[in-house]
Description:
6-stranded mixed beta sheet, 8% helix, 353 residues
Amino acid sequence: xxxxxxxxxxxxxxxxxxxxxxxKGGEIVVRVGQEVSPIQVVARTTMATEFAxxxxxxxxxxxxxELGDYLKVEKGAPVEAGAVxxxxxxxLRETQVLSPVDGLFFxxxxxxxxxxxxxxxxxxxxxxxxxxxxxxxxxxVMLETSGSLIQAAWGSGQEGVxxxxxxxxxxxxxxxxxxxxxxxxxxxxAIGRMDNLELFHRAEDFGVRGLIVGSATAELCRASQxxxxxxxxxxxxxxxxxxxxxxxxLRQADGRSVSLFGAYKAGAGQRAEIILxxxxxxxxxxxxxxxxxxxxxxxxxxxxxxxxRVGTVQHIYNHLQSTEVGLKVAGVDVLLSDGxxxxxxxxxxxxxx
Length: 353
């Protein structure tokens, strides 16, 4: 029974092409063939100035009417990106609300702080080290690089770049305060599981550049969408941790530069991605995203009691098989790392490319 399966790219060394484009036409400031760094501006355009709004009272854990007692900047004062707008000390730490842009402290309304940006230029950075291979109209460029590529299950929508720091020694390790006790400023942290929203906000305060987790709670994922701190979830919502191949690839890349592309649009087939650039080797090709299943293929189980586990396909059934609940479905036998062979319905498989 030939059919196509969901697939995920987890490649230690491959050729990668990524489009970087503005939301509307503008000015391209690099040339084809040019090598660019992650922080280099590749295109820019003018944008209608929009206020930057921060839910300050919510982040500080106070009532909206109390916010005035915690403000550090007066109304109308100029502020720079990263300036402390409000802060609150509690227990052994301090929670801060930082300005995301250069601008003016415009107003406070219902516990929210509004900053009026002083620049109406939108600059698009490369975000990954590579070479410009073509233009995308007057909106951006196509970049080519080589290195490790990991397609993730979900992303918060934010982008970031930094040096990777794997803070766990096992793929199911849960993030704790101890993991944030060292020098994590400017680092992209990788760990198996994260289920504490308070630790997410602490990572923001410590200047962490990004978080890569195997699994996270739905509450944490929702909250991260309102934060500038990128969150990439490699495996899914829940407590399954990180798949072994992903964890090992990140562990081996510890200390390398990592780029986080957090855009996730399920309807358009857009996946969040992690890119770890490194020097190219001869013969690299861009990986094929979709492929049919073959014996020996590495797969990840998406649900059932073995959700999150990785194994290899032992046998592909040509006819529908009966499940424990009496349904007849297409499926395969998967050999797990502990030597156990289990039947998995095709709908519950993720092919690792």
